User: What shape does this take?
Amino acid sequence: MRTDTTSVLVVGGGLTGLSTALFLAWRDVPVIVVERHPGSSPHPRAVGFTPRTMELMRAVGLSGSLPEYKGDGKGVRRIRVESLAGQWFEEQPWSAPGKATPLFDYTPTRNGGLAQDRFEPLLRDKARELGADVRMSTRMLGFEQDDDGVTATMRDDEGVEYQVRASYLVAADGHRSPVREALGIERVGKGFLGESRSVLFRAPLEEYLERGYVQFMIDQGDFGGAVMSYGDGRWAFFHRNEVDSDEDTLRAMIFRALGRSDVDVEIITEGRWQLTAGVAERFADGRVFLAGDAAHTLPPSRGGFGANTGIEDAHNLAWKLAAVLTGASAPSLLATYDAERRPVAKLRHDQIFLRTQGAATDVETIDDAAMEYGHLYRSSAVLGAGPELPPARRPDQWLGQPGTRAPHVWLAPEVSTLDLFQRGWVLVTDDPAWDGLVDGVDCRVIGNETGKADEVRAAFGLNPGGASLVRPDGYIAWRAVDAPADRRAALGSALAEVSAAPALATS
Ligand SMILES: Cc1cc2nc3c(=O)[nH]c(=O)nc-3n(C[C@H](O)[C@H](O)[C@H](O)COP(=O)(O)OP(=O)(O)OC[C@H]3O[C@@H](n4cnc5c(N)ncnc54)[C@H](O)[C@@H]3O)c2cc1C
Assistant: This one.
């Protein structure tokens, strides 16, 4: 049997797998993705993408192709209605009262609004353009791992079987995850929540989007469901009615939800969804990593964290795999993936239920900006993020706390501090005395002459002469609030520790 070799094998070509491939290829890591289907599912699921997801896409040059969410720039808004044409009642916020904050003061981006079946091809094309080998209609049949790598057996659409040998495997194979099952990794959480059905249709209903709402919770007493817009003329009606699938019945149900029957409705397809909530007990096993729904299912009916969390997993993992594969970091860096991402998934899981079921537990309800931009990573790739700190806060509360995403400050029109990060390790300071001290660190001096030094120091929590070390994923790894006596020694030992560098060269 033929054997193809690569550095990273990604199983699953959905949003998470394709994002993993894109972020790896962007870092010049050889990667093969296998997806058993020939293309994206004709029934899109996700449509709402967070500003953080858009920040990650901005970093790899894709955000220009992604439209902003239709509406008023506030992202996914929903309202309880009798029907679209009937009476409209109150808005149903995603957050607890008083916990919603304007999201985009903290970011150079906005919410992305694009149906999953349009987003996936963009990711696929960009990943391929950067060198990823994306193989559609190819199913992984099984895999084995040893001390040096993973060997997986594939079957292509012509029935030809072959092997792929890779250093690492990323399982982005969805919520049923055959890879997770094969590894015997259990999930913890609320579990099965119920089944939902949907009918996807095309109809000219743009007039109902004008007030900024994109999801309509239908409440007619004995009849209910949710009508949601995919922002491109397509809509879906989600319901739990056990009805026949013939066109007349589906059309009658749609007309009832719309509150009118004088509109052209083209039925595209139907869907049936199992809603589950759970987080894998571990996100890694040897050389295999779980990402996206394989690692956590976060129900869409309660927040829209699902795909966005998967894309963030992919981003967290990609720079670490790249660093280990090039030998810049020891394999121990990879243990920080589970340490950093599993608590985020667990927190999101708990917040989803807290937000909708009230504060019945001792978990505090966390506001939107903290959930979006303020997760704290605690791992060996961060110095100074102790157990006494809360799991998430807003960037204006953290003020550059190591373990959190480096804050956004506009440095010039269209240039954010976030644009300084992603390629490698970056030191942010106002003092040129830090420049050139340690190999592998790109020192960015934002001095008083820029007119931005005060703002940057305040956002990063630095005094004049201090410095923040930012990881290749834009998270703060370490900082010296004031200049230490020996800058080179302080920075060198911090970098060696957080990057798990086998040998650190100082110039
Ligand atoms: C109705 C609905 C609406 C949603 N809306 C939102 C939203 O607005 N925002 C949001 O963030 N999330 C939303 N979600 C959640 C989101 O859709 C999922 O979190 C996301 O699709 C997960 O992506 P993934 O790549 O991890 O998994 P998947 O999309 O499930 O992809 C896994 C892929 O792996 C492939 N695969 C599996 N096994 C193999 C194998 N052995 N070999 C080859 N290929 C294999 C599958 O074919 C599949 O394509 C929604 C979900 C639903 C159901």
Observations:
- Residues 335-357 form the longest helix (23 residues).
- The CA atoms of residues 437 and 488 lie 5 Å apart.
